[in-house]
Amino acid sequence: MTTTLQKAPVRKVPAPIGRRRRTHSAKGSRVTLHVLLAVGGFLMVAPFLWMLLTSFKTLPQILANPLGLFPSPWNFNNYADAWQAAPFGLAYWNSIYICILTVAGTILTASMAAYAFARIEFRGSKFLFILFLATQMVPQQVTIVPLYMIFSKLGWVDTHLALIIPAVLCNPFAVFLVRQFIRSLPVELEEAARLDGAGRWRILFSIVMPNIKPGLAALSIVVALGAWNNFFLPLIVLNSENQFTVPLLLSQFTGQYGGVNYSLVMAASAISIVPMLIAFLIGNRKILNSMAMSGMGGS
Amino acid sequence: MTAVLAKAGTPGAGLEERKEAGWRKRDRWSGLVFVSPQLIGMSVFVLLPFAVGLVLAFAQWDGLTELSWVGLANFQAQLADPVFLRSILNTLGLAMITVPVGLALSLLIAVALDRLRGRTGYLLLYFAPVMTSSIAVSLVWQQILRADGPLNEAFSTVFGIPGPGWLSDPRFVLLAVSIVTIWSSLGLNVIIFLAGLQGINPTILEAARVDGAGPLRTMLAIRLPLLSPVVFFSTVVAVISSFQTFDVVFILTKDGGPENSARTIVYQIYDEGFKHFQFGMASAASIILLILTLVVTAVQLGLQRRFVHYES
Question: Which of residues 227-256 of A touch B (CB under 8 A)?
């Protein structure tokens, strides 16, 4: 699992007879493979490159030479213009703090529930766990209309509470994943503490959670990414511009300017994407392993 | 465990047993206490709205005037509405394009990367779209797919004929949405499949090699069957998430596309519920979506037995 990103094993063992004959064509096919993968990889990032290049062009430059790749001259005004045309700074702040609270809260509540399901025998635990798994099947879009009514009853419309509280208090997937992590720990670890008189809370916080830190870190990344990129719920519950998250502000911004000023829209997109890409470049191994781990259900 | 040891007649047996009994008594409550935040959340934010939605689907309500019961009229109206039927077809069409193509491509890439040195570099490239917000990437693609955009410029330069109106020609819009969807989710499945391939027990592969199986044979007879549970799980997830397509359609087409050519069920829910405030109609549409999801998932679970290999 965690070996995903380790280097491919270097085979020092002499190749068995019968393999040697194939090495020449194997080398050729490996080169072909690299070429194909590189072309595919280029296609994957080409839209980003195009976004960046366009964001440094002026509109007349784009219209005059649609196929021209590089801006001449480079024009840096789009970024300042986009930043001034819409409150991106505020949106960033909103997104960041929603993200942090969502991650912290989810880790806490999911660990508590997961610990109970993994280790504590209590009445109805099996039924509740199955119920949790079942609710995962219900797409958010199915409950969105009544959910909106609940938010308006609670006075949460146009507030960030509507984004944070449900995310923190209802994440069956996180519960399931953390339960998998906890079940991989030996029970003996807890028994020693139990004999010393530690209660369930202390065992959870000072023994269990520290021991599943890598798993919790992986979950944090997945939850953070989901919270950061969430669009549907903010679109429905947020109305005032100063409450907007980054994706929502971006979509509204282009509603005003889109279709007209391409380079301004691309600069705005870059403003909202580039920090994520930089974060990805810095923490790529951890992020990739986290996604793999959660994508396979923590197995 | 401690109870078993205590019975052996050690002096502290009584104390240990009492401790254990007290612990169990407290567990009955601490279990519920530990689960309660998530339990409350699930009740208030999923079960309750779900129940309300079931009821609302049989009512006519705009949130302001009196609610009135209309029986099955919402369902009848939706299923008789060519726009909604189109949205069902579009949603199914999207799943039928994006799931097989997306998963097959991811699988090919994962297999290619499995034994390759320097794969982290490729992974970075393939995974970048997953990291970025669907809104931003849809905006970029909207520009790329413009009738006079770079894709069509390249198209006409290479083939000498003008490229299609990806976002203006009803025949191409769903394809455009599919391309963006596949592009943005490809990397996630690559990394999941790759992790699955890397997790295969090397002794099995070694045994196959000793038995004289070549790379292709090993792939077809051993690695892919061993990977099939992961592929199955990813397929189920991919189908469910393609049924929920909204962001890409919302940005690329703004209104569901010309002649509703890219309107999905979720877009319909959004349109009925939050643009026209037909809460009953939106609820009926959402229940149809849920039924569709459940049926397709059940069919997949049924097929699983035939095609998925689980290590015993």
Answer: 228-229, 231-232, 235-236, 246-248, 250-251, 254
Residue A62, chain B, CB below 8 Å: the answer is no
Interchain contact, B131 vs A287, CB within 8 Å: yes
A16, A51, A251 member nearest B135 (Cβ): A251
Please report which helix (H) or strand (E) contains residue A72, including its range.
none
Put simply, the answer to whether A50 touches B150 (Cβ < 8 Å) is yes
- Cα dihedral B198, B199, B203, B204, rounded to 10, equals -90
Other beta carbons within 10 Å of B223: 19
Q: Please state, in angstroms and as integers, the Cα–Cα distance from residue A240 to each residue in A16, A30, A91, A162, following that order.
A: 69, 55, 11, 14
Taking only the tens place, the pLDDT of each residue in B107-149 is 999 999 988 888 889 999 999 999 899 999 999 999 899 888 8
| Amino acid present at A82 | A
Q: Which of residues 68-107 of A touch B (CB under 8 A)?
A: none
Domain boundaries, chain A: 20-81, 86-295
Phi and psi of B167, rounded to 5°? -110, 0
Residue identified by tokens 């509280």 is A165
The answer to whether the Cβ–Cβ distance between A5 and B120 falls below 8 Å is yes
| Identity at B13, one-letter amino acid code | A
pLDDT one-digit tens code per residue, B274-311: 999 999 999 999 999 999 999 999 999 888 887 787 76
Judged by CB atoms closer than 8 Å, whether chains meet at B140 and A135 is answered as: no
State the architecture of B73-307 in CATH terms: Orthogonal Bundle (1.10)
**Fold observed for domain A86-295:** MetI-like fold (1.10.3720)
Domain boundaries, chain B: 2-56, 73-307
Q: How far apart are the first and last CA of chain A?
A: 8
Nearest to B109 by CA among B122, B96, B99: B122
Q: Which of A51, A194, A195 sits opposite B140 (nearest CB)?
A: A51
pTM equals: 0.86
Phi and psi angles of residue A173, each rounded to the nearest 5 degrees, phi first: -60, -45
| Interface ipTM above 0.90 | no
Nearest CA in chain A to B17: A195
Cα separation values, B153 from A45, A63, A66, B146, B177, Å: 19, 12, 7, 10, 20
Helix (H, G, I), strand (E, B) or coil at B166: coil
Place of tokens 């880790």: A107
